[in-house]
Amino acid sequence: MEELDTLLRDKVRLLGNMLGTSIATHQGDGMLARIEDIRQQAKKARTGNEQDRQQLLDLLHALRDDELVPVVRGFNQFLNLANIAEQQHSASWRRAEWLADEADCLFTDLLDRLQANQMPLAAITEHVANANVELVLTAHPTEVTRRTLIQKYDQIAQLLQQRDDLRDEHPDQQHIDARIHSAIEEIWQTDEIRHVRPTAVDEAKWGFAVIENSLWYAIPNLLRNIDQTLQARGAPALSLDAAPIRFASWMGGDRDGNPNVTAEITREVLYLSRWMAADLFLRDINALGAQLSMPDATPELQQAYPHAEPYRACMHALRDRLKQTKRWAAACAKGQSSDIQPLLRDDELLQPLQLCYDSLLANNMATIANGLLLDTLRRVACFGLALVKLDMRQESGRHRQVLNELCDYYDYPIYEQLSEAQKCEFLLHELQSKRPLLPRRWQPSADSQEVLDSMALLATDIGQGVSCYIISMAGEPSDMLAVALLLQSCGVRHGLPIVPLFETLDDLELSADRMNALWSMDWYRDYCQQRQQVMIGYSDSSKDAGQLAAVWAQYQAQERLSVTAQQQGIRLRLFHGRGGTVGRGGGPAHSAILAQPPGSVGGGLRVTEQGEMIRFKFGMPSVAQRNLKVYISSVLEANHLPPSAAEHAWRAQMNTLAERGVQSYRAMVREQPDFVPYFRAATPEQELGKLSLGSRPARRKAGGGIESLRAIPWIFAWTQMRLMLPAWLGADDALQDSIDQGNLPLLRTMYAEWPFFRTYIDMLEMVLSKSDADLAAYYEERLVEPALHPLGQRLRQRLQAMVTVVLTIKQQQRLLENAPVLQHSMSVRNPYTDPLHYLQAELLFRDRAGDGHALDAVETALKVTMAGIAAGMRNTG
What we know:
With 877 residues, the protein is mainly alpha-helical. It contains 36 helices and eight strands. Helix 33 (773-783) runs parallel beside helix 35. The radius of gyration is 28 Å and the shape is globular.
């Protein structure tokens, strides 16, 4: 097995030793020795020897109640520190493979291939500028790490980078090590469990912090790096307004199933976003005011700012306006009125900066112009004065409820009882009616009033910070028209994009027909101006039908939507609601984008980035820069060097696999009477409520079964006990049946030649490598009544069979055979995650035996095991 990079191994050891010193200082040498004994025994138990495993269990069972929390905290924090080291090292210039950096090679290799295809250099620059990638930051209902700890982890990462930048034995190294040790001490002394559930405003502030601390620096650095690469080949530089990547957010705008997100919350978040943008630009302007002291300027700049130092005069004027904007935004966020005239339009900031830039170039000061001033111009193009546009999302049933109440008030037939054709006829008539829809004396229910209040916000100036309105569980054209009518009735006049989210298997299969019907309506074509965004749901479709059937339905839906849009003359942009885990559509960006149907990203790419994955991928400027570059490279490759279309035989095979997969999945999840009791007994699903996670509840509705559980906690629960069921259930039977029918050569050809199928199998392999049937069996042994054990045994047998199938298709002897670094990374983590799993099962037993009234130490330790396992797996849900 390939070893970790030597320097990375040294970093992990350094952080681990410092953590050990902190534990010994505060808990005593005996506690550190106990943790080390458990770790060493867990390493031995990994060999599969039952006696070694029993000795590990004996060590864990011997822990007193007052020892539980320090032990689980020790393992948890080591895993967090190992993650920090890996994340920082991935972008370090001192890593072994730095000269062959994947992100840089992807981009330069792509440019080589585009030039080989005779693409003009100017066209290459234009295509880069128009990549049209938008990453949508969303909160994570199972994000377990407190923000105060995230800040300390970020500090350690920055210090590790400073350490890398010094030669060995540099006199400053000792000082940096002392600061790292201090940060680890602070972490050990900090409670890692969040006791108060964060609000939607808290989540939005966390999103702003990611921009402030990382993306604000990553964007100009990325574009400068791309410019240098392009110009070295003789291509023109990117224009000043080029923004190949932009950002949006759901934090404070996503009200689907979250009663905590109200019109008032959204209004506050929109103003806070303005405040944060003004504050960040003010920092830039202050720095430019100190830098731009030169007198030579163009007549245009001198006329605009008649001063001995016109650049500085310009910056001082902008500084004053930005300070005013901050005061205005702060007052409005608190619900106070303000007569301040703030900066509202981006061009109010852009034009003075552009004037200075042009003047510097005209006076032979290009080096100065292309420094901090260019960085600020890049930030204006990417972030603007809104900083990050907000999406508003609501479930379709809430809009039908408003219309039901309105129809009842007017003594019309109940809206929901109308046929689809009747609904569309009614809605189109009302959309073109000259009378108001909403009567003055009508008193809607509280839920309906909230829907209308949220829409009315979009008609205000601050509402311009909302980029689109997304409809969850959209199934029919009437769902879109209903939102258009309600928006119009609330005063929204600017043609706000309305985005259907197709989530279930049935909705995905019918999505193109539904949109074709909508695009055939003259009123709607005029409304959308022949531009449409459609969101593809990954999480709920996978929970509904199983991962195999879901990914194929998503692929076909994109194909059909793209063809239909082209036929209707609609410029389509697909929005991918992907999560961090494979069970929710996650995976490496490059392979995931190239696995999309050819032509489906022609209108650009919009994709969600969630919770912990935002931290891992964009939490540090250097790491963010690499990942953003991968997105740009991948979209360009997909559009201009697309893979070949799938062969008919491959598609036919996928149809058969998907049909068998959904049948097998639903037979277990929906029809097996023991499945839900087993799930609730064997996993910590019920205990999730003890964690103060995101602002959004784990369930869309109180009570209910699997169908009401959100996809994220559904996957979280199975990940905690390492069965990883959502990613593979159904695929095991489907693929094995296909092999039994003699289709193995076909499956191997599909894997070798079809990016879609190869990406699916590779992601399946990755998630299977994180599964552990022995650990799952222990959860069952400790927590599940014997009558349900046969079901658990059957599931573990199916898991092992799934591993065999993947190895057979890939012609490998073991999982991750071609990914040795990832394989070794997991092996390093196992001695730390294994004790957490065994302890979690024991703690769940004790907690349940106490009818939810367990000792505080037991409950706290249980919460920490959830956080630690999530860190060890590098994802929660």
